[in-house]
Amino acid sequence: ESGQVADVEGAFVAPANLGQFTVSIPILYYSANMDSNPGWTLESPWAFGAPAYSGSGVPNSAFTGTNILATNLSGNYANNLTAKYATTPAINTTGSTSLTLRFMRWLKKRNQDTTTIQASSDGQNWVNLWSSSGQVSDTSWQLVQFSLPAGMAGSPSLRLRWSLSSNSNQNDIGWNIDDVQLLGDGSLDTSPPVPT
Fold first, then answer.
1. What value does the CA radius of gyration of the chain take, rounded to a whole number of Å?
2. What angle do CA 57, 62, 65 make, to 5 degrees?
């Protein structure tokens, strides 16, 4: 019947307030979908472009579009690599009280090679969001997300960076990154839903 709600057994609920909920819509502070060069600072061997790996178990295409950021677009990273970074431009997060980094990754690295994701509110002092010295063997694109420390929110010049360093033997393809987003707390939607 019009304007009424039925339960799963078909019984209609008497007209009344059925409850309420709140919806918070996140604010998109930064997005790099990699369709065009995002203008990051890339230390060699980091590169922007279309993946050109051969074989299985590697990204033969971007998650969306055609381009990604990677430590090597067509093969393995080198041995004995000191930490090399891919760093975003400064991101203005003024007004935020919480931030979440979300992106797609295809990461393959050997045990004792180190990968990190770091954040900085001033471009000089960096805080680890994630770090691993163990083996990682993604076999497809993975959605990952990390909450940033509370002290990072509200920064007018927040930067994010990804790194890779390697030991003296064995290597793999390393980082492959696509669809990077930085989301913040949103405004509260206080309007009730309107039936259509």
1. 22
2. 160
Strands (E), 33-83: 41-42, 47-49, 68-70
> What integer pLDDT is reported at residue 1 of this predicted model?
53
Is the preceding omega at residue 89 within 30 degrees of 0, hence cis? no
109 pLDDT higher than 90 = yes
The per-residue pLDDT for range 129-184, each reduced to its tens digit, is: 999 999 999 999 999 999 999 999 999 999 999 999 999 999 999 999 999 999 99
Q: Locate tokens 């930064």: which residue?
A: 30
Predicted TM-score (pTM) of this structure: 0.84
Residue type, 181: Q
* 69, 40 contact by CB (below 8 A): yes
Across the chain, mean pLDDT equals: 90
Question: Which DSSP symbol is given to 151?
Answer: G
Residue 94: C-alpha distances to residues 40, 72, 106, 154, 187 (Å): 21, 34, 31, 4, 14
- Give the whole-angstrom CA distance, residue 123 versus residue 22: 36
**CA 104/CA 58 separation, integer angstroms:** 14
Residue 84 token pair: 């090399």
Phi-psi region of 113 (alpha: psi -120 to 50; beta: other; left: phi over 0): beta
State mean pLDDT over 88-116. 96
